[in-house]
Amino acid sequence: MNAQTPRWPLPQRDYWSTPFAESLLQHLDISPGLRILDVASGHGIPAFYLAEQVGPTGQVLAVDVSARQIARARAIQGPHLPCLRFECMDMRFLPPDLPTFDRITGNLSVMFFRPDRFQAVQGLVKHLVPEGQLVLTFPSHGTFDSLWQHVDQMMIQRGHIHERERFQTYLNERPSAKEAKSWLERLDLERTDVTEYPLEVATGPGREFLYHPLLRGGFLDDVYECFEDQDQAEEFMTAISDDIQRFTPLIAQRCVLSGWRKS
Ligand SMILES: C[S@@+](CC[C@H](N)C(=O)[O-])C[C@H]1O[C@@H](n2cnc3c(N)ncnc32)[C@H](O)[C@@H]1O
User: What is the distance between the alpha carbons of residues 67 and 9, in angstroms, rounded to a whole number?
Assistant: First the structure.
């Protein structure tokens, strides 16, 4: 690892991608000259950091399905870090002629491996060299459980039977650390490791909770979608938001899965 202060550090004011990327980096074996594929790269967390670490003799290909994210990443990059390239690609359908890589990373990626998560991980491993390492992160099953238990209780109390069925389906669909372990075993990777690190997400009551940029964008919307009547959803969620002491602190689980392809 580069011992000097990085010129492309992980953004310190980011309270979600950066803590996940920090846990990814705890498991990633990185050194100058490596070729890395970073999937679900977004606007470059942790691709910029990785590119600086592998240096001019290495390569980082960062791929994201969203053209907007790729354009944003390229704008941030400008003329810097020539060993880093951002391309618009679907990580579930990588071109078969794509070269192999020494490392494959994906921060906050696994939840997008739909519809078949195992198949998506298997597809990535095909692009790993023998003795190459795969490291992915995602918020795993226990994430915000105190909130989901409260939502469930409230749905029971208020007789939202169909909404609760949809909610249970949503909860059961979330990827778990246990599932991640089974993928690594089925793929016959070695030195496998699946570790969860807790992360507290701070929120206040009322609108601060309901319009929290992280919660509203990625989690609360899933509860709203359980309701056919959006006015009823609004009323339900407002009652939840007035009572945050029942489910705070809100704890996410940062799950890191890592494995090495056999030689
Ligand atoms: C939560 S963001 C994570 C971005 C970045 N790695 C970070 O840590 O900030 C997930 C990213 O996955 C991308 N994504 C979703 N489905 C994808 C797919 N099938 N192939 C490639 N990227 C995908 C989204 O466009 C989004 O930029």
Answer: 24
